[in-house]
Every structure is written in C-alpha cells, then in structure tokens.
Design goal:
This protein is mainly alpha-helical. Helix content is 33%, strand content 8%. The protein contains four helices and two strands. Helix 2 crosses helix 4. The longest helix has 25 residues.
C-alpha cells in the first residue's frame, strides 16, 4: 500500500479473534494462542470474537465448516441466548472499529482499512466515515 508519509499513523485496539465475549462486554482478556482449544468453533467452552464473527457469517477463507462446528460444538445446538450474545458482540466490535477509524481519519474521503491478524475477520466489510 502506497502512502504519502514515511511512517503511517497506527492505532491498535484490543480486539482480536481470541477476545473473550461476555453477555455485557468484550475482553479485555483473550484466550490468545489457546484459541484452538478454548473457542466454541474448536469445541471449547469459551465464547470468543472468532465465534461471534463466524455466527455473523464473517468466516475466514478456507474455514467454511466453522459455522457447522459452531452449531454442533460442545455447547450443543446454539441457544438463542448464546446467539444473541454473539450478535451483540459483533455490534460492539463494529462500533469499536468505526470509532477507531473516525479517530484516525483526516477527512471525509474513503480510505482503505488495513486490519491484520486473525481478528481481521471480526472487522466489518465497510464502515461509515
């Protein structure tokens, strides 16, 4: 990506695929490298942002079976309560990303957002502003 400055401004937010999802908030803790043992999509018992993204249809390339795994994991069929918690987490995460973009913007011009790491599937496809 070409830029007009030597060092781009970077804003890091505490939001990743391993961020723990709770009924009334996200994180700040994360399952981190233990995600493949602890996240619901991997048969674990901890709801993470990866689970929330998958439930919302934001599935990383090559992981199309994760949605089926989420539905039939250790927790059994996804309860309505768990589905609501994951949906709410995606809404909160989207707000975090939109707020971060608003804080970094230099004007009302469309710019690409570069999201890195496994949590990039947690980001909205488009954001206003």
């Amino acid at each position: 990506m070409l830029t007009n400055f030597r060092m781009p401004d970077i804003l890091a937010i505490a939001l990743g695929g391993g961020t723990v999802v709770r009924p009334h908030g996200l994180g700040p803790d994360s399952v981190g490298y233990r995600i493949v043992r602890e996240a619901l999509v991997f048969g674990g018992a901890t709801a993470t942002m990866t689970d929330a993204a998958v439930a919302a249809g934001r599935i990383p390339p090559g992981a199309e079976d994760w949605r089926d795994r989420l539905q039939g994991g250790r927790q059994g069929d996804m309860s309505e309560e768990n589905a609501d918690i994951l949906e709410s987490a995606v809404t909160r995460a989207d707000r975090m990303v939109i707020d971060a973009v608003d804080r970094m913007t230099l004007g009302r011009t469309d710019r690409p957002l570069v999201a890195v790491g496994a949590g990039r599937s947690c980001c909205p496809i488009t954001s206003p502003g």
